[in-house]
Design a protein that fits this description.
By secondary structure, the chain is an all-alpha fold. Helix content is 87%, strand content 0%. The N and C termini lie far apart (197 Å).
Length: 218
């Protein structure tokens, strides 16, 4: 395959080829992000962010002394230094950005899983706490109802006892009144009988005296 036929390289213009290379390396990193295991990504991120400042350092040195950073290239110009090490710096930077995003996504996935587990545990704990609270409230309600029922029964019993006592006292009072009335009537009857007897005796005595007087006069 002739790489000159690839889009971006056909014109052989330096800046177009530079931009095309950046785009293609970015696409390559995105593809690698999808297939590279999560355990390798931290190392790639470290390589990317370590290579980026080193490439910038080499770029600065190359702008001063191109032969120091382009030892195997015959034409050692500052333009080649700029295209080579700026491309390298951007490539390392994109590597770090792409794979740190993947790392963050992985961490977010792990965090989401941990959060889900924690949420599930919290939900179970909340459910258990809710059940315990409901059970405590139910027992408290039952205890309150029991005490209220006992208080109502006690008051009802006291009321019944009070009414029974009042009824007993009323009957005793009626019985006493009845007996007193009977006693009063008996005494009144006796007094009346006594007076009638005395009256009868008095009249008999008067009648006897009258007859004796008549007998004496005759």
């Amino acid at each position: 395959m002739n790489w000159r036929k690839i889009f971006g390289y056909r014109s052989k213009t330096a800046w177009k080829m530079f931009i095309a290379s950046i785009v293609y390396i970015f696409i390559l990193f995105l593809i690698l992000q999808a297939i590279i295991p999560n355990s390798i990504r931290p190392a790639l991120v470290n390589i990317g962010f370590l290579g980026f400042p080193l490439s910038l350092l080499a770029l600065i040195i190359g702008l001063i002394k191109p032969q120091f950073v382009l030892p195997k290239i015959q034409i050692k110009t500052r333009k080649k230094v700029v295209y080579s090490y700026l491309y390298l710096a951007l490539a390392f930077f994109l590597m770090g950005i792409v794979f740190i995003d993947g790392k963050s996504t992985s961490n977010q996935t792990v965090q989401k899983a941990d959060t889900k587990v924690a949420t599930s545990q919290d939900t179970k704990k909340d459910t258990a706490d809710t059940k315990s609270k409901e059970e405590a409230q139910r027992k408290a309600q039952e205890e309150t109802e029991r005490k209220a029922q006992e208080e109502a029964d006690r008051k009802a019993q006291e009321e019944a006892n009070r009414k029974a006592q009042e009824e007993t006292q009323r009957k005793a009072q009626e019985e006493a009144n009845h007996k007193a009335q009977e006693e009063t009537q008996r005494k009144a009857q006796e007094e009346a009988n006594h007076k009638a007897q005395e009256e009868a005796q008095r009249k008999a005595q008067e009648e006897a005296n009258r007859k004796a007087q008549e007998e004496a006069n005759r």
